[in-house]
Structure formats: C-alpha cells, structure tokens
Design a protein that fits this description.
alpha+beta, 3-stranded antiparallel β-sheet, 20% strand, globular, MrfA-like Zn-binding domain-containing protein, DrmB
C-alpha cells in the first residue's frame, strides 16, 4: 500500500475536486484516498485536541445531517506523521497493472505475490515493479479505465473475463447508425482457460481502442477494447476508500448500473464541501483540551451532566454556562446556504472588529469615490474553514442539497459519507486557512432599479430556458432561483479577479470568490488564503487608495467590453456547459475552476457593460 507515498498538498484533501474517495494522480500511479477514520485520529485520545478546528457555528449547521458530530479535525501535516503517526492513507486504484516490456497484465496483489515469490523484499516494491529478470524491475503501468455508478461506488472492469465473449457479442461488427451502440457481452460463467495468463498489448499503428487488446498467453483467446465506453454491468458495491477489513474491501448491496470512464475524468468524483468564514461572536470560547476532556467524561458514562459541569467549572475555573452550552446541542435545523451566509454578510457590515484580533477588518464608505458601489470592507485577517461532508460520482449536487434529508433530496445520485460510520460519525475532516480579502457591496438602490429592466430579465430567462434542457439536475435546480443580480454579481466577481491578477501580485488561481446574493444581500468577497500565494497584504491594501481601486474596477469593466471572440461571444445565446453562459468565454470572463463557486457558469458580461442596459453601461 502506498500509505507513505502521498506527497500532494493538504488543500487537495479538501477541495471541490479532491478528498476522501477521490483518485489522485501521483508521480508513480493513481491512488484512492481512504476514509479519515484510517488516518490515526482514533488513537490520539487527549492529543486529539491538537487537531481540533473550532467553529461552533459551522458545527451546529452540520449537525442537521450529522447528529452525533462533535469535532472538525485538521488534515495532518508531514510533521504530524512523525510526531503522532497521523497521516492520510491511500491504496492503489485502479488495481490492474501491466508491464510495458513483457506485456503481462495482472492485479496489484498478483504482482505483489510474484515479487515476493522471486525472493525480493517488499520494501522495494512500491511503486509496483515487474519481477521478471528480463524486465529489470521495470515500473508497471496502471490501467486507465474505471467503472462508476450513481450510488458512488467505483470499480475495475472485469479484465479477467474481457477476452471471454458471449455468442451474442457484436462489438467488432459493423455498426448500424440507427441503432444504439452496444458494449461488449462477457461470459462470466468461467475464465477463458484454467491457467489464465493475460497480457496487455498496444498496437503502434492503430491508435484507436481497437488497437489495444487483452490476450491470454496460455489459450490465445483475445479481445480488443473497442466499445469499452458502452460496456455496462450491475454494480458490485465495493467501497475501496474504506480500506480493507480481514483482507477484503468493504462492500454493500447495490442495484445500480455502472458506466465506464477514464480514471482522470472529472465525473469520477465530486466532493461535497462546505466552507464557512469564522465569526467570533458565534463561538464558545472553551479550549480544545477542555472539550476533549468533557467528551471523555460523557463517553465514560460515569458522570451526569450536572456533575460534569460542577467538576469542570471548579477544576478549570470556567463559567458553568459555557460548559452547559457545549454539552447541549441546542436547536438543530436545516440552514440553507443563503441564510448561513447572511450572518457573515451582516457581521462584516454591522459589527466592529473584535479586540482579540481573531479577525481584522474595517468598512469603508465608497459611494462617492466608486461608481455603482456603496461600501467596501477591507479585511486584513480572515479565517475560513472548509469541511468535506460527502461525495458523489457521475453528477455533482448543489450546495443546499449537501445537508438535506433524504426525503427532500432531489437527485438520482447518492451521497456517500467520508466516514466508515456513515452519517453517524463524530468527526469530519476540515481545513483551516487564514487570508485577506475585500468585500464589495453594490449600491442597492441602483441595483433594484437596474434589475427591473425588461432586457435584463429577458437575458436571465434565456439562461433558465437553457438550464431546463441541461443533462444535470444541478443546473435545473440552480436555475430555478437564478436572478439578474446573481448573474451580474457573479460576472463582476470574475472580471475583478481577472483584473486583480495584474495589479495585486497574485495569480487568479490563488484568489477565490464568495457570493452574497439574495433580496437582502448584494455583495461579493474576493479573498486570498495561505497555502496558495495569498495572505501577503497585496489584496486588502488596495483599499487604502480608493482612487487607485476605482481605476482598477474601471479598467476591469472597460476590458470586458472587448473579447477576442467578439462578436460571436458578445451575441451568444448560450455557450459553455449546458449553454449556461451568454456573453462569457475563456478569453474574457472565465477564471480557473478553483476560483469559482459556480463552475464557471451563469455568466454574462453584457449585463455589466452594455450601454443600453448594463449595470456599468455609463462608464
């Protein structure tokens, strides 16, 4: 197992594209990240306090879906792996490898047994190598095809049966254009022969899938990979991300049908991640050490609530109310994302900076200096917590559905928990980041007048109509609540990020947006965090010179009036995934995927710059 070979950044363990059960490409081969239950947290006891990330506001929100949740625990660093033996675990996936010299094709466990049988030490087997003398320990190549299902499982294809076809198989016959293509029909009753010895051969002349074939050296039976993406079978329900129990990977009953994908395909994995900005007013000040001590007393069953409160308050000299507040979960209810963000938005606009310096900010009235905006909030110190709750395969879900109960859930794809304990887990993996940012608040009066224009409404209706025909339920759900101000603020966010890349010293991939859009919110936060190239002061310090910042905003808007793909881009009635962008493409509006909250969709720069109905049309 490559458990000591994971050398990618901590941020990739919790992101929109990586996390528990995701396939990560390493310098050797691809691996699947195992559940954080296997990382070593369970053996820490009191040392667990070192890893706890405190955000009681986020914790309370998560308890709607995770009723027994007690702590968010940090992704371990390299130093942690030496001090406490806490490190991310993984296993190779896909499990099938072939040698590019001798062409032999077998599972990881079979290659491992051959290595051991040849008298070689297993310490030198990772990355996997061929044990044949002629191959001189050649590094094995990993198969690049996997199968996934809508219930979140992932599997290897049945390669041991691939060259054993039924008489009904028509894969290599001439296809009828009027018929739906059929995948290979395999005979699972037996293997091609008793002493199967597979090889994986690639033609140098034929670059198509028909130029790759699986052949048995013993019986000579072979079949190519033509039609592999049309192959389907019933899912066997294995959960490779949960690791092994008694030498076998966990599995569950599943009636879904699998589909074949490349292991690097985006649709193999979608992380369901929630992020939260730390608000000091909504936190319990109990330290992590005391929290762990209280938890241990509760789990022992030897202490009543009253006795715990009394003992801790006397020993630690802490107010009883704080201990009771921690012990009592309070009202647990489903909180939509906009309601959750409202408290952040209100805090930065209405509250004063806390004296303890946990976060640092000040608001600036810019209504006279910057056209179209009423306020700015200069945030010099900001804390963000991101937590992975679950994941899906084949299709993503919207942020409001991540914590919904099953009876309210509208998707065909199933959420898979990142824990062995499913949704009864007591801990979830999280990532804490510090950074800086600017909260831009648009002029509400001007915004309300602008969004009533018939031209503006018509353009939003075009996006909604395109979303109704989209393949993913996600797009249909988001489009139901799509408003002119959301498309405007989202597009403006992208234009500003692209412009800030030139002036604040950070690449666009290091900046991130957080949209605050509802009937009572009309702003956007652009921030930079540690772990990227952020948190050097180059972003928030732009607020010190409003004249210069106004020039930056004006330049961003002016730059958006022209695109190298115009007039095609400007007059488009649908482009991008699902035709969900109007006047927006890679040349003028789109940003790196890690920057955007909405997957580079629901954008239209015409709403920003058009001289007749654009919000900034008069600039």
């Amino acid at each position: 197992m490559p458990n000591d070979k994971i050398q990618h950044g901590r941020s990739k363990h919790i992101s929109n594209y990586g996390g528990v059960a995701s396939l990560i490409e390493t310098t050797d081969n691809s691996i699947i990240i195992e559940t954080f239950d296997n990382w070593g947290y369970n053996n820490l006891n009191e040392k667990l306090a070192h890893y706890i990330i405190k955000d009681d506001r986020l914790l309370q929100r998560l308890r709607n879906r995770f009723p027994n949740l007690k702590h968010l625990v940090a992704i371990p660093t390299d130093r942690d792996s030496f001090l406490h033996q806490v490190r991310p675990k993984a296993n190779y996936f896909p499990k099938w490898f072939y040698c590019s010299y001798c062409k032999r094709f077998a599972t990881y466990s079979e290659w491992k047994n051959r290595w051991r049988s040849s008298g070689k030490k297993l310490d030198f087997f990772n990355p996997p190598k061929c044990s044949n003398k002629e191959c001189k320990e050649n590094h094995l190549e990993q198969i690049r095809f996997v199968m996934t299902c809508t219930n979140g499982h992932i599997h290897d294809l049945p390669w041991e049966y691939w060259n054993n076809r039924l008489s009904s198989d028509r894969t290599n016959e001439t296809e009828d254009e009027n018929e739906k293509p059929q995948g290979p029909q395999l005979d699972f009753s037996k293997k091609c022969c008793e002493n199967q010895d597979l090889i994986y051969k690639i033609s140098r002349e034929n670059t198509e899938l028909s130029g790759i074939w699986i052949e048995c050296k013993n019986c000579g039976k072979k079949a190519n990979l033509k039609g592999i993406f049309n192959y389907q079978q019933k899912c066997i329900g294995k959960k490779f991300w949960l690791g092994q129990l008694n030498g076998k990977f966990h599995e569950e009953e599943c009636n879904a049908t699998t589909s074949v994908k490349l292991k690097t395909s985006n649709s193999v994995y979608y992380a369901n991640t929630l992020s939260s900005l730390f608000i000091p007013d909504m936190q319990n000040p109990l330290s992590s050490d005391i929290r762990v001590e209280i938890d241990n007393m509760v789990e022992s069953g030897e202490f009543t609530t009253e006795l715990i409160v009394q003992l801790i308050s006397i020993q630690k000299k802490i107010e009883k109310e704080l201990i009771l507040q921690y012990l009592e979960k309070g009202e647990v209810k489903y909180i939509p994302d906009n309601i959750y963000r409202q408290s952040e938005y209100d805090y930065f606009l209405e509250k004063e900076q806390p004296e303890n310096g946990q976060i640092k900010f000040r608001d600036i009235d810019c209504s006279e200096q910057i056209n179209g905006f009423s306020k700015l909030v200069k945030i010099d110190k900001l804390k963000r917590i991101a937590v992975q709750t679950s994941f899906t395969r084949n299709e993503p879900i919207d942020v409001d559905s991540i914590l919904q109960n099953q009876n309210e859930y509208e998707y065909a794809v199933m959420r898979q928990s990142v824990s062995k304990n499913n949704f009864d887990t007591k801990t979830l993996p999280a990532l804490e980041s510090y950074g800086e940012g600017i909260l831009f608040v648009l002029d509400n009066q001007k915004l309300c007048e602008w969004e009533q224009q018939s031209e503006v409404i018509e353009r939003i209706e075009i996006i909604k109509a395109n979303a109704e025909n989209a393949d993913w339920k996600l797009h249909q759900i988001i489009a139901e609540t799509l408003t002119p101000r959301k498309v405007l603020i989202h597009t403006l966010s992208h234009l500003l990020i692209r412009e800030l890349e030139y002036v604040c010293g950070y690449p666009a991939s290091s900046l991130s947006e957080r949209l605050y859009v509802s009937e009572t919110m009309h702003g956007l936060l652009i921030s930079a965090f540690d772990g990227t190239d952020g948190y050097l002061g180059g972003l928030s310090n732009l607020c010190n010179d409003l004249e210069n910042l106004n020039n930056i905003i004006t330049s961003a808007i002016y730059r958006a009036t022209d695109c190298s793909s115009d007039p095609i881009c400007l007059e488009s009635e649908g482009q991008g995934v699902g035709q969900l962008n109007l006047a927006a493409c890679h040349s003028c509006t789109l940003t790196p995927e890690t920057t955007c909250e909405l997957s580079n969709l629901y954008l239209d720069r015409k709403l920003v710059v058009n001289k007749d109905f654009g919000y900034f049309g008069n600039i």
